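Fold this complex.
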Amino acid sequence: MRTDDLIHALVADLTVSKTRLWQLFAVALALGAAVSAAAFFSTMGPRADFTQALHTIRFVLKFVLTLSLATTAAGLLMRLARPGAPLGWWRWAWLATPLMLVVAVAVELAVIPPDSWAPRLIGVNARYCLMLIPLLSIAPLAGIVFALRQGAPTRPGLAGAVAGLAAGGIAATLYASHCTDDSPLFVATWYSLAIGIVALFGYVAGARWLRW
Amino acid sequence: MLMRAAIAGDAAAYHRFLSALAPVLRSVARRNGARIGLSDGEAEDVVQEVLLAIHLKRQTWDVDRPIGPWIMTIARNKLVDARRRRGSRLTLPIEDVADFLTAEGDDGAMDRHDVDRLLEKLGERQRDLVRSLSIEGRSVRETAERFNMNEGAVRVALHRAIKTLAALYRKDEQ
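Structure:
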């Protein structure tokens, strides 16, 4: 087939698509998050003292961290999905979350006595945290990867890993409302590890399914 | 411009856009391809792969941004793939050499071999449809009449065939 012939075939295949890429992305993300939320609320749900906990800064900080990670990772993904799109400040925006976490850990270490460092770091729910955040990430990650397949990420592995961060951020937001370990020491250790596992899965999934 | 009109559904504009783009891609592919040891025939494969990607991924172009960087990023990506493919292919198939010797700077003869080989991997129906719409230059309606299908079914089958072609190129790498 000559190139001119191929062009004929491509022109014959021209259809108008009304859905924009970001719309598809938003829908996939929302659907994934909704599935996880449904699973979360029908099984464990938020902790009993949820409304009182909202008055404590450590509890609220967890949501600031997880939501900022989900938002910045999703924003970066929209750029990674388009060939040649400048990443701009999205390239660095996701670093805001680890940065805030480092500051929070430093403050925590300064305000609490050293003998409660270890109990706060180990917490009571570490194993659940490591298990449930990745589980709650499955649906959002699947949704994001599906949407990204309609995009064209030039670095599939990286895009998959960032998809993992976004999905992990969503899952951690849900889990944070259940988990009673609020210390930044706990969050920095176990939440990071759990989201790191999701990012690793995302990397593998991206390298496998996001090539085009 | 043309691509904006094309995305809005203007087939004539799309044809002009792709036809104008192909020579540009060809010179990019040959110039860069020569550096990584691609023959002109293989460079033409890259051109076709880039055209397929531009077609299938056209919604990833943000219409508010210049189109140049988008096209060049896709082209670079496909050249990198071609180099990888090249690296894993240790022996040079004799056909490539023969093509190279018989081709006289025209892109016609060289690219026929590779894509025809890919066309062979399509199902019979898909292959005949693609041939009818491309090499034989029939319209969707004429093709539909010829194969006794409705136009919608032809369009769906064509779209599948194009996606399959792009996937076959990709699989070629492994």
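Residues 90-109 of chain B have pLDDT under 50 and may be disordered.
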